[in-house]
Amino acid sequence: MNENKTQRIYKAIMLIVLTAAVTFIITSILMYNKLGSKSFKTISTTDTLDTNFKTFHDFIQKNYIGDIDENAMNESAIKGYVAGLGDVYSEYITKEEMKEYMESATGNYVGIGVYITNNTKTNQIVVIMPIKGSPAEEAGMQAGDVITKVDGIEYSGESLSEASAALKSKEGTIAKIEILRGDEVLNLEVERKRIKINHIESEVLENNIGYINISSFDEGCYKEFKENYEQLKTKNIKSLILDLRNNGGGIVDEAVNIADMFVNKNEKILTISAKNKNNDEIIKAKTEKQIDMPIVILVNENTASASEILTAAIKENNEGVTIIGKNTYGKGVIQTIYNLSDGSGLKLTTNEYYTPKDNAINKKGIKPDIEVDLPEEQSIYTIKREEDTQFKKAIEVIK
Predict the structure, then answer these.
(1) Region 81-85: what's the mean pLDDT?
(2) Which residue among 54, 315, 326, 331 is the active-site one?
(3) Which end of the chain has the smaller Cβ count within 10 Å, N or C?
(4) Which CATH superfamily does the domain covering 108-196 fall into?
Protein backbone atom coordinates (compact mmCIF):
# COMPACT_ATOMS: atom_id res chain seq x y z
CA MET A 1 0.00 0.00 0.00
CA ASN A 2 1.64 3.25 -1.05
CA GLU A 3 1.93 6.32 1.13
CA ASN A 4 -0.80 8.32 -0.64
CA LYS A 5 -3.33 5.54 -0.23
CA THR A 6 -2.43 5.19 3.44
CA GLN A 7 -3.03 8.88 3.95
CA ARG A 8 -6.41 8.74 2.18
CA ILE A 9 -7.55 5.73 4.14
CA TYR A 10 -7.18 7.67 7.33
CA LYS A 11 -8.95 10.73 5.98
CA ALA A 12 -12.23 9.04 6.71
CA ILE A 13 -15.60 9.49 8.22
CA MET A 14 -15.41 8.11 11.72
CA LEU A 15 -11.84 6.81 11.34
CA ILE A 16 -8.79 7.60 13.45
CA VAL A 17 -6.08 9.67 11.82
CA LEU A 18 -2.81 8.92 13.61
CA THR A 19 -1.00 12.21 13.50
CA ALA A 20 2.24 13.30 15.07
CA ALA A 21 1.54 13.92 18.72
CA VAL A 22 -0.66 16.98 18.94
CA THR A 23 0.36 18.78 22.09
CA PHE A 24 -3.15 19.86 22.95
CA ILE A 25 -2.65 19.64 26.69
CA ILE A 26 0.58 21.65 26.54
CA THR A 27 -1.18 24.25 24.42
CA SER A 28 -3.99 24.42 26.95
CA ILE A 29 -1.49 25.02 29.74
CA LEU A 30 0.23 27.77 27.77
CA MET A 31 -3.12 29.42 27.13
CA TYR A 32 -3.96 29.13 30.80
CA ASN A 33 -0.70 30.82 31.80
CA LYS A 34 -1.59 33.79 29.61
CA LEU A 35 -4.88 34.38 31.40
CA GLY A 36 -5.38 37.49 33.45
CA SER A 37 -5.85 37.40 37.23
CA LYS A 38 -8.99 39.49 37.33
CA SER A 39 -11.01 39.14 40.53
CA PHE A 40 -14.75 39.73 40.40
CA LYS A 41 -18.11 39.65 42.04
CA THR A 42 -20.09 39.36 38.81
CA ILE A 43 -19.05 37.73 35.53
CA SER A 44 -18.74 40.13 32.62
CA THR A 45 -20.02 38.73 29.33
CA THR A 46 -17.88 41.21 27.43
CA ASP A 47 -14.58 39.74 28.62
CA THR A 48 -12.40 37.74 26.29
CA LEU A 49 -12.69 33.94 26.33
CA ASP A 50 -9.32 33.56 28.07
CA THR A 51 -10.21 36.01 30.85
CA ASN A 52 -13.63 34.47 31.36
CA PHE A 53 -12.14 31.00 31.71
CA LYS A 54 -9.60 32.18 34.30
CA THR A 55 -12.29 34.12 36.15
CA PHE A 56 -14.58 31.10 36.40
CA HIS A 57 -11.68 28.88 37.42
CA ASP A 58 -10.61 31.17 40.26
CA PHE A 59 -14.16 31.80 41.46
CA ILE A 60 -15.00 28.09 41.61
CA GLN A 61 -11.74 27.27 43.39
CA LYS A 62 -12.49 29.92 46.00
CA ASN A 63 -16.19 29.23 46.62
CA TYR A 64 -17.16 25.68 45.67
CA ILE A 65 -17.52 23.50 48.79
CA GLY A 66 -17.16 20.11 47.09
CA ASP A 67 -14.21 18.24 45.64
CA ILE A 68 -12.93 19.53 42.31
CA ASP A 69 -11.76 17.13 39.61
CA GLU A 70 -9.62 19.34 37.39
CA ASN A 71 -9.26 16.68 34.68
CA ALA A 72 -13.02 16.22 34.41
CA MET A 73 -13.56 19.99 34.28
CA ASN A 74 -10.87 20.44 31.63
CA GLU A 75 -12.44 17.71 29.49
CA SER A 76 -15.86 19.33 29.85
CA ALA A 77 -14.42 22.73 28.97
CA ILE A 78 -12.76 21.39 25.82
CA LYS A 79 -15.92 19.52 24.83
CA GLY A 80 -17.92 22.70 25.23
CA TYR A 81 -15.40 24.75 23.27
CA VAL A 82 -15.53 22.38 20.29
CA ALA A 83 -19.33 22.16 20.59
CA GLY A 84 -19.36 25.93 20.19
CA LEU A 85 -18.53 25.42 16.51
CA GLY A 86 -22.16 24.45 16.07
CA ASP A 87 -21.06 21.50 13.92
CA VAL A 88 -22.87 18.30 14.85
CA TYR A 89 -19.99 16.21 13.51
CA SER A 90 -17.08 17.85 15.35
CA GLU A 91 -16.31 16.87 18.93
CA TYR A 92 -13.64 16.34 21.54
CA ILE A 93 -13.17 12.66 22.34
CA THR A 94 -11.89 11.53 25.73
CA LYS A 95 -9.20 8.89 26.09
CA GLU A 96 -11.81 6.30 27.02
CA GLU A 97 -14.02 7.21 24.04
CA MET A 98 -11.06 6.97 21.63
CA LYS A 99 -10.74 3.26 22.37
CA GLU A 100 -14.38 2.80 21.35
CA TYR A 101 -13.86 4.80 18.14
CA MET A 102 -10.89 2.67 17.14
CA GLU A 103 -12.79 -0.55 17.81
CA SER A 104 -15.86 0.67 15.92
CA ALA A 105 -13.77 1.68 12.91
CA THR A 106 -12.42 -1.86 12.57
CA GLY A 107 -15.83 -3.44 13.14
CA ASN A 108 -14.47 -5.51 16.01
CA TYR A 109 -15.54 -4.66 19.55
CA VAL A 110 -17.11 -5.99 22.74
CA GLY A 111 -20.80 -5.26 23.08
CA ILE A 112 -24.22 -6.71 22.37
CA GLY A 113 -24.06 -6.45 18.56
CA VAL A 114 -26.77 -4.06 17.44
CA TYR A 115 -27.12 -1.14 15.04
CA ILE A 116 -28.91 1.80 16.65
CA THR A 117 -29.91 5.27 15.49
CA ASN A 118 -31.43 8.46 16.82
CA ASN A 119 -35.01 8.91 15.65
CA THR A 120 -34.89 12.70 15.61
CA LYS A 121 -38.66 12.96 15.26
CA THR A 122 -39.32 11.16 18.55
CA ASN A 123 -35.93 11.70 20.22
CA GLN A 124 -35.66 7.96 20.82
CA ILE A 125 -32.92 5.39 20.32
CA VAL A 126 -34.20 2.92 17.75
CA VAL A 127 -32.72 -0.47 16.88
CA ILE A 128 -32.03 -0.57 13.15
CA MET A 129 -31.21 -4.27 13.36
CA PRO A 130 -29.35 -6.74 15.56
CA ILE A 131 -26.25 -8.22 13.95
CA LYS A 132 -26.82 -11.80 12.85
CA GLY A 133 -25.65 -14.29 15.46
CA SER A 134 -25.04 -11.53 17.99
CA PRO A 135 -26.00 -11.61 21.69
CA ALA A 136 -28.69 -9.01 20.91
CA GLU A 137 -30.31 -11.27 18.33
CA GLU A 138 -30.05 -14.29 20.63
CA ALA A 139 -31.73 -12.32 23.43
CA GLY A 140 -34.68 -11.52 21.15
CA MET A 141 -33.97 -7.90 20.31
CA GLN A 142 -35.72 -6.84 17.10
CA ALA A 143 -35.49 -4.09 14.51
CA GLY A 144 -37.75 -1.23 15.57
CA ASP A 145 -37.28 -1.77 19.30
CA VAL A 146 -36.77 1.46 21.23
CA ILE A 147 -34.00 1.34 23.84
CA THR A 148 -35.10 3.39 26.84
CA LYS A 149 -32.67 2.28 29.58
CA VAL A 150 -29.29 0.58 29.87
CA ASP A 151 -28.30 -0.72 33.31
CA GLY A 152 -31.00 1.40 34.92
CA ILE A 153 -29.95 4.66 33.28
CA GLU A 154 -32.46 6.33 30.97
CA TYR A 155 -31.32 7.45 27.50
CA SER A 156 -32.96 9.58 24.81
CA GLY A 157 -32.11 9.90 21.14
CA GLU A 158 -29.86 12.89 21.68
CA SER A 159 -27.72 10.80 24.06
CA LEU A 160 -27.09 8.11 21.42
CA SER A 161 -23.30 8.18 21.91
CA GLU A 162 -23.62 7.71 25.66
CA ALA A 163 -26.08 4.84 25.20
CA SER A 164 -23.79 3.20 22.65
CA ALA A 165 -20.89 3.40 25.11
CA ALA A 166 -23.06 1.94 27.86
CA LEU A 167 -23.88 -1.09 25.71
CA LYS A 168 -20.15 -1.81 25.39
CA SER A 169 -18.12 -3.03 28.34
CA LYS A 170 -15.97 -5.95 29.43
CA GLU A 171 -16.58 -9.27 27.75
CA GLY A 172 -18.88 -11.51 29.79
CA THR A 173 -20.68 -8.71 31.62
CA ILE A 174 -24.46 -8.43 31.42
CA ALA A 175 -26.26 -5.42 29.95
CA LYS A 176 -29.70 -4.92 31.46
CA ILE A 177 -31.72 -3.24 28.74
CA GLU A 178 -35.24 -1.85 28.89
CA ILE A 179 -36.92 -1.64 25.50
CA LEU A 180 -40.23 -0.39 24.23
CA ARG A 181 -41.84 -2.58 21.56
CA GLY A 182 -45.07 -0.98 20.48
CA ASP A 183 -46.93 -0.38 23.76
CA GLU A 184 -45.11 -3.17 25.56
CA VAL A 185 -42.17 -2.60 27.92
CA LEU A 186 -39.65 -5.47 27.91
CA ASN A 187 -36.55 -6.08 29.99
CA LEU A 188 -33.69 -8.02 28.42
CA GLU A 189 -30.44 -9.26 29.89
CA VAL A 190 -27.80 -9.46 27.18
CA GLU A 191 -24.29 -10.77 27.64
CA ARG A 192 -21.59 -8.60 26.11
CA LYS A 193 -19.32 -10.52 23.75
CA ARG A 194 -16.69 -9.75 21.15
CA ILE A 195 -18.53 -8.74 18.00
CA LYS A 196 -17.20 -9.13 14.49
CA ILE A 197 -19.36 -7.32 11.98
CA ASN A 198 -20.17 -8.80 8.60
CA HIS A 199 -20.81 -5.83 6.37
CA ILE A 200 -22.18 -7.62 3.33
CA GLU A 201 -25.14 -9.88 2.58
CA SER A 202 -25.70 -11.22 -0.91
CA GLU A 203 -27.97 -13.62 -2.81
CA VAL A 204 -29.24 -14.46 -6.26
CA LEU A 205 -32.84 -13.48 -6.92
CA GLU A 206 -35.20 -14.49 -9.72
CA ASN A 207 -34.14 -13.87 -13.33
CA ASN A 208 -30.44 -14.06 -12.40
CA ILE A 209 -30.59 -10.79 -10.46
CA GLY A 210 -27.74 -10.36 -8.02
CA TYR A 211 -28.51 -8.64 -4.73
CA ILE A 212 -25.92 -7.12 -2.40
CA ASN A 213 -26.71 -5.29 0.83
CA ILE A 214 -23.98 -3.18 2.46
CA SER A 215 -24.73 -2.35 6.10
CA SER A 216 -21.74 -0.05 6.74
CA PHE A 217 -18.31 0.84 5.38
CA ASP A 218 -16.11 -0.34 8.21
CA GLU A 219 -12.60 -1.67 7.73
CA GLY A 220 -12.60 -4.73 5.46
CA CYS A 221 -15.88 -3.88 3.71
CA TYR A 222 -14.28 -3.67 0.25
CA LYS A 223 -12.70 -7.09 0.60
CA GLU A 224 -16.05 -8.58 1.68
CA PHE A 225 -17.85 -6.87 -1.19
CA LYS A 226 -15.40 -8.17 -3.78
CA GLU A 227 -15.65 -11.71 -2.41
CA ASN A 228 -19.45 -11.62 -2.43
CA TYR A 229 -19.58 -10.20 -5.95
CA GLU A 230 -17.19 -12.87 -7.24
CA GLN A 231 -19.44 -15.54 -5.72
CA LEU A 232 -22.51 -14.04 -7.39
CA LYS A 233 -20.67 -13.88 -10.71
CA THR A 234 -20.01 -17.62 -10.60
CA LYS A 235 -23.81 -18.04 -10.36
CA ASN A 236 -24.23 -16.22 -13.66
CA ILE A 237 -25.97 -13.04 -12.50
CA LYS A 238 -27.06 -10.70 -15.30
CA SER A 239 -27.91 -7.59 -13.26
CA LEU A 240 -27.35 -6.18 -9.78
CA ILE A 241 -29.41 -4.54 -7.03
CA LEU A 242 -27.20 -2.66 -4.59
CA ASP A 243 -29.05 -1.96 -1.33
CA LEU A 244 -27.63 0.98 0.64
CA ARG A 245 -30.72 1.76 2.68
CA ASN A 246 -29.99 2.50 6.34
CA ASN A 247 -26.25 2.59 5.60
CA GLY A 248 -24.95 5.60 7.50
CA GLY A 249 -21.46 5.53 5.99
CA GLY A 250 -18.07 4.72 7.43
CA ILE A 251 -14.57 4.71 5.99
CA VAL A 252 -14.39 6.71 2.77
CA ASP A 253 -11.67 4.58 1.21
CA GLU A 254 -13.74 1.42 1.58
CA ALA A 255 -16.52 3.06 -0.46
CA VAL A 256 -14.01 4.47 -2.97
CA ASN A 257 -12.46 1.03 -3.54
CA ILE A 258 -15.89 -0.47 -4.18
CA ALA A 259 -16.75 2.40 -6.54
CA ASP A 260 -13.54 1.65 -8.44
CA MET A 261 -15.10 -1.68 -9.51
CA PHE A 262 -17.95 0.19 -11.25
CA VAL A 263 -15.91 2.97 -12.90
CA ASN A 264 -13.60 3.07 -15.92
CA LYS A 265 -9.93 3.53 -15.14
CA ASN A 266 -8.88 7.18 -14.61
CA GLU A 267 -12.48 8.40 -14.40
CA LYS A 268 -13.32 10.63 -11.44
CA ILE A 269 -14.90 9.03 -8.34
CA LEU A 270 -15.04 12.10 -6.11
CA THR A 271 -13.37 15.37 -5.20
CA ILE A 272 -12.27 15.98 -1.63
CA SER A 273 -12.24 19.72 -0.95
CA ALA A 274 -10.19 21.22 1.89
CA LYS A 275 -10.29 24.64 3.56
CA ASN A 276 -7.24 25.54 1.51
CA LYS A 277 -8.45 24.91 -2.05
CA ASN A 278 -4.86 24.25 -3.12
CA ASN A 279 -5.09 21.04 -1.13
CA ASP A 280 -8.17 19.73 -2.96
CA GLU A 281 -7.80 16.11 -4.01
CA ILE A 282 -9.41 14.40 -6.99
CA ILE A 283 -9.86 10.66 -6.55
CA LYS A 284 -9.91 8.63 -9.77
CA ALA A 285 -10.45 4.95 -10.52
CA LYS A 286 -7.17 3.03 -10.53
CA THR A 287 -8.31 -0.20 -12.16
CA GLU A 288 -10.37 -1.25 -15.15
CA LYS A 289 -14.13 -1.49 -14.65
CA GLN A 290 -15.07 -4.89 -13.22
CA ILE A 291 -18.86 -4.59 -12.99
CA ASP A 292 -20.70 -3.70 -16.18
CA MET A 293 -24.36 -4.73 -16.10
CA PRO A 294 -27.78 -3.19 -15.40
CA ILE A 295 -27.73 -1.72 -11.89
CA VAL A 296 -30.38 -0.48 -9.47
CA ILE A 297 -29.37 1.26 -6.24
CA LEU A 298 -31.78 1.33 -3.31
CA VAL A 299 -31.48 4.35 -1.01
CA ASN A 300 -33.50 6.04 1.71
CA GLU A 301 -33.34 8.92 4.17
CA ASN A 302 -30.76 7.01 6.25
CA THR A 303 -28.37 6.51 3.33
CA ALA A 304 -25.53 8.85 4.24
CA SER A 305 -21.94 9.88 3.73
CA ALA A 306 -19.79 7.08 2.23
CA SER A 307 -23.01 5.51 0.92
CA GLU A 308 -23.78 8.71 -0.95
CA ILE A 309 -20.23 8.79 -2.33
CA LEU A 310 -20.69 5.28 -3.73
CA THR A 311 -24.17 6.01 -5.09
CA ALA A 312 -23.06 9.16 -6.92
CA ALA A 313 -19.87 7.55 -8.26
CA ILE A 314 -21.79 4.65 -9.82
CA LYS A 315 -24.67 6.79 -11.09
CA GLU A 316 -22.60 9.55 -12.68
CA ASN A 317 -20.12 7.20 -14.34
CA ASN A 318 -22.59 4.76 -15.89
CA GLU A 319 -25.56 5.14 -18.19
CA GLY A 320 -28.79 3.40 -17.28
CA VAL A 321 -28.21 3.17 -13.51
CA THR A 322 -31.49 3.71 -11.65
CA ILE A 323 -31.71 5.02 -8.08
CA ILE A 324 -34.90 4.01 -6.26
CA GLY A 325 -36.28 4.98 -2.85
CA LYS A 326 -36.17 8.27 -0.95
CA ASN A 327 -33.87 11.29 -1.00
CA THR A 328 -30.66 10.43 0.83
CA TYR A 329 -29.53 12.02 4.10
CA GLY A 330 -27.15 14.62 2.70
CA LYS A 331 -23.92 14.26 4.67
CA GLY A 332 -21.27 15.53 2.31
CA VAL A 333 -18.53 16.39 4.77
CA ILE A 334 -15.61 14.34 6.04
CA GLN A 335 -14.31 14.23 9.58
CA THR A 336 -10.68 13.68 10.48
CA ILE A 337 -10.01 12.31 13.95
CA TYR A 338 -6.70 13.45 15.38
CA ASN A 339 -4.97 11.38 18.03
CA LEU A 340 -3.85 13.76 20.78
CA SER A 341 -0.78 13.35 22.97
CA ASP A 342 -2.66 12.17 26.08
CA GLY A 343 -4.64 9.49 24.22
CA SER A 344 -7.73 11.64 23.69
CA GLY A 345 -8.85 12.85 20.28
CA LEU A 346 -10.34 15.66 18.27
CA LYS A 347 -12.88 14.86 15.58
CA LEU A 348 -13.08 17.82 13.24
CA THR A 349 -14.91 18.46 9.98
CA THR A 350 -12.00 19.11 7.63
CA ASN A 351 -13.28 18.36 4.14
CA GLU A 352 -16.31 18.46 1.88
CA TYR A 353 -16.72 16.01 -0.95
CA TYR A 354 -18.25 16.46 -4.38
CA THR A 355 -19.58 13.92 -6.86
CA PRO A 356 -17.80 13.07 -10.14
CA LYS A 357 -19.83 15.81 -11.84
CA ASP A 358 -18.94 18.26 -9.04
CA ASN A 359 -22.36 18.21 -7.39
CA ALA A 360 -22.52 19.01 -3.68
CA ILE A 361 -24.27 16.50 -1.44
CA ASN A 362 -24.06 18.15 1.96
CA LYS A 363 -27.51 19.11 3.28
CA LYS A 364 -28.97 18.20 -0.13
CA GLY A 365 -28.58 14.47 -0.53
CA ILE A 366 -29.17 12.51 -3.71
CA LYS A 367 -32.61 12.52 -5.30
CA PRO A 368 -33.75 9.10 -6.54
CA ASP A 369 -34.75 8.62 -10.16
CA ILE A 370 -37.88 6.86 -8.94
CA GLU A 371 -39.22 7.96 -5.57
CA VAL A 372 -41.02 5.18 -3.73
CA ASP A 373 -42.60 5.39 -0.28
CA LEU A 374 -42.98 2.43 2.00
CA PRO A 375 -46.57 1.45 2.88
CA GLU A 376 -48.20 3.68 5.49
CA GLU A 377 -47.50 2.74 9.10
CA GLN A 378 -44.66 0.45 8.00
CA SER A 379 -41.37 1.03 9.78
CA ILE A 380 -38.26 1.30 7.72
CA TYR A 381 -36.57 -0.89 10.33
CA THR A 382 -39.06 -3.76 10.48
CA ILE A 383 -40.67 -4.07 7.04
CA LYS A 384 -40.70 -7.55 5.51
CA ARG A 385 -39.51 -8.11 1.96
CA GLU A 386 -42.93 -9.14 0.67
CA GLU A 387 -44.26 -5.73 1.78
CA ASP A 388 -41.20 -3.73 0.75
CA THR A 389 -42.46 -1.50 -2.07
CA GLN A 390 -38.99 -0.08 -2.73
CA PHE A 391 -37.48 -3.53 -3.17
CA LYS A 392 -40.40 -4.61 -5.38
CA LYS A 393 -39.90 -1.57 -7.60
CA ALA A 394 -36.20 -2.43 -7.93
CA ILE A 395 -37.10 -5.93 -9.16
CA GLU A 396 -39.65 -4.49 -11.59
CA VAL A 397 -37.21 -1.95 -13.05
CA ILE A 398 -34.21 -4.25 -13.37
CA LYS A 399 -36.21 -6.94 -15.16
Answers:
(1) 93
(2) 331
(3) N
(4) PDZ domain (2.30.42.10)
